Request: fold
Amino acid sequence: MEIYYKKIAKELNISTNQVENTVELLNEGATVPFIARYRKEATGSLDEMVITEIRDRMEKLKELDKRRDTILNSIEEQGLLTDELEMQINEAQSITELEDIYLPYKPKRKTRATIAKSKGLEPLAKIIMSQKNDDIDSRAKAFIDKDKAVISVEEAINGARDIIAEWINENKFARAKIRRLFERDAVIESKVAKGKEMDGENYQNYFDWKEPVMKSPSHRILAMFRGEKEGFLKVKVAPSDDKALDILEDQFVRSDYQSGDIVFEAVKDSYKRLMQPSIESEIRAAVKEKADEYAIRVFADNLRQLLMASPLGQKTVLAIDPGFVSGCKVVCLDKQGKLLHNETIYPHPPQNDTRRAISKIIQLVSAYKIEAIAIGNGTAGRETENMFRKIRFENDVMVVMVNESGASVYSASPIAREEFPDYDVTVRGSVSIGRRLMDPLAELVKIDPKSIGVGQYQHDINQTALGKSLDDTVMSCVNAVGVELNTASKQLLSYVSGIGPSLAKSIVDYRDKNGAFVSRDQLKKVPRLGDKAFEQAAGFLRLANAKNPLDRSAVHPESYPVVKKMAASLNCTIDDLIHDTELRNKIDLKDFITEKTGLPTLQDIVEELTKPGRDPREKFGFFEFAKGIHKIDDLEEGMVVPGIITNITAFGAFVDIGIKQNGLIHVSNMANEFVKDPNKYVKLNQKVKAKVVSIDKVRQRIQLSLKDVD
Reply:
């Protein structure tokens, strides 16, 4: 393992000791959020991103070792394992290097070379490969054998050439040279598939496209590969054939004899039939993996921004899932998100029962003391919002458009059916919209992150890697915010460090049976929640009404004795420390350093005493779309409109401007400079003002710009 610790440390530019301690904590069952927050002394204050990289890199190295063992066993079973070969395999640093070493020993199905070998032509291939003989025809006559179906000199030479072609393909040095050529010079080229010009118009940008593959951005790689998968494009990844053949000729052709000519023919055959397709597959897999990694990172960044969106907080909310023919589904929720009432109104065509709908809304707002109204931003959303803004309520009521992506997925899910067994999907969808306004994080954890719709080409990328990254992101966000133990749902609790779905259910069952928790320590009474789970989870759980003020904070129970010592040293209570800045300023952290508790933890403790349990999310900000703009026909070029960033991709950001179609701010219109990473210029849910630069009503596309807009 020491060699791996050193390798990872060098890659991440950190110390070997940091890697070793982190891996040890991970092996003991510690989660990434726990290690980052409560084990800073051990890791040297590594953040979640680096800890996750260490975890993932170790997993890849372990997979490399598994493959190494498989290859060693395979070659040993064949009786071909030498000390030198074993050393080469053990020193291989990548899967690619391992597979190149293994290729000559890999059990093969029937190939042209194996057939030629079965005909006894391998000695002739060795004679030709030596390139010391100019009369190969004479030597080949000795290999004519009708019993082995070798009936002519030409057939003998052709068989020998097939064997040589396979040797060339299996030569690890040749493969390494060609692989480097691909990495340096390969071009990705896409053309429209014959007869697909009309059906594949979504891919018309790639009907005749060519660029260096290593410079092709993630979204173009994924688009071309998807077009190929769907049968609309033909895609090739390769460098110049002439350059590749020159490299192989320099390595293998060493004479002007007839044997040299045969070897050159074998070189051409080997490259075009064996090596080029093989290396192309490798390079395609490599660029696909790189494109996946970027797309997954974009998806995870977007998801983090969505989950960490500003919560409205505990307010009474009236929520609406708008619609035309089927009407608008209305629900009223209390401050904890509990469903109090539901019904349907029909203010829009074809019913147009606007007067009765407004009367009903005024009645509900008054009866349930509604403080905010959440309107889904889907079909009929703007029309419903426009109606609500004209209503005069007795008290100030906030009207907010809410991104409803994924609400329909939640409403039809087992989670929603369990939560609301007596209500249909429309009511569940409205409840989700209302709760999403109150606390986006608590509601969105109930939806598969892949269904929230904040990524690009999400169905084309590695689903296992995507799922793992998104789960990491959700867990990171949940633990960064902290979870109120007495009100959290099973779904939210399941993302708390060390808990998971099974323990989350046990906690909720215990809470339902015994009433609200009064202390963190009471968690130890939950069935199957042992010391390890308590250690991992306790610091991330909050009890707003706990007697012990530290139970309301992010201070871990293991550090309670330290805080008590701090208070005792100043002859005050812990409450006094929390509320008196002057007292906290008198604490000399060096006095409290122990073998287990170092300066980083002590600094975190004092920071938490300053703002115990504070939500790290930004405060909720009000937003309103432009009046009079409800459809694409209402837009004009040059118009500046307010909007909300709904999705960020490698090529730009999509903006909800209050109509059915989202506008696109292309990277070229994002700033007065070259934009490589849109995430450095815009954030999900960010409120922006953008200029309309072009409108394509036929394709329903709107181009926006942030340049030269105040």
User: Anything to note?
Assistant: The two ends are 55 Å apart (CA to CA). The chain is about 50% helix and 10% strand. The chain has a mean pLDDT of 93.
